[in-house]
Amino acid sequence: MLPLVRGAAKPEETLRAYAGLSLKEEVQAEGIVRNTAGFSRFLEAISFSHSSLLNISDVARDCETGRKTVEAHVAILEDLLLSFRVPVFTRRAKRLLISHPKFYFFDCGVFRSVRPAGPFDRSQEIDGAALEGLVAQHLRAWIAYGWERMELFFWRTKSGNEVDFVLYGSEGMWAVEVKNSPVVRPRDLAGLRAFRDDYPEAKPLLLHRGKERLLIDGIPCIPCASFLERLLPGSPLPD
Asked: What pTM value is reported for the model?
C-alpha cells in the first residue's frame, strides 16, 4: 500500500484523490500528455484489464481513440512505474497458448480507485482482480529483493486452462493460482493440474481466502494472507 494512504486518517478518500488527481498531474507534469480528459478515460477503460489479458484494440475501442494512442498511454504508465505487464509462459509449450500479456496497476488500491463500479459490476469480480494484483505486487517485490534470476509469467491455453502466475528461474519453477474464495472447489485446481501434466517439475500452489491449510490431489492450498506474510526477501517461496 502507498505510504501516504496507509498513514492517512481517511485512507479511501486519500487513495481516490491520489488516483484522480495526483496520477494525472504526475503524467501531465512530464509533458507527455496534453489531453488529460482523454487520459482519464483511458485510465478508466484500462482498469477493466487489471489482472486480465491486455487487448490494446479493445481498450482503444472503449476509449473511442486510436490503437497507437492507447499503446503510447500504456507505455507512459510503465515508464512511470505505474503499471506492469506479465508475459505468457511459453517455454517447451505442449499446447496452443494465447499471446496477449496480462496487465496490472502497480498498486491494487489504485486499481480499486480508478475502476468504475455500477449495478452491472459484481463486487466479487473486482475483489478477485484486486487480490490477484496484490499477489502480483508481492511476487515482483520478492523477486526484486533477492531472487533476481527468477522471472514472473502466467500461463493460459487457447482452450481456457490458466495459471495466474508462473515463477521460473535457476532456483526452480512454481505455478501459483489465486482464488478469492474461502472454499476450494475441485474445478479451482483444473489449471494447476493441466500445468503439472505439462511441467511435472513445477511445484503447484493454490492461494485462497479461507483459514485452513489443505492438500488436495498433491497440491498445497494455503490461506493467501499467510502466504503473503511469509513471503520475505531472500527467503524461499512459502509452501
From this structure: 0.89
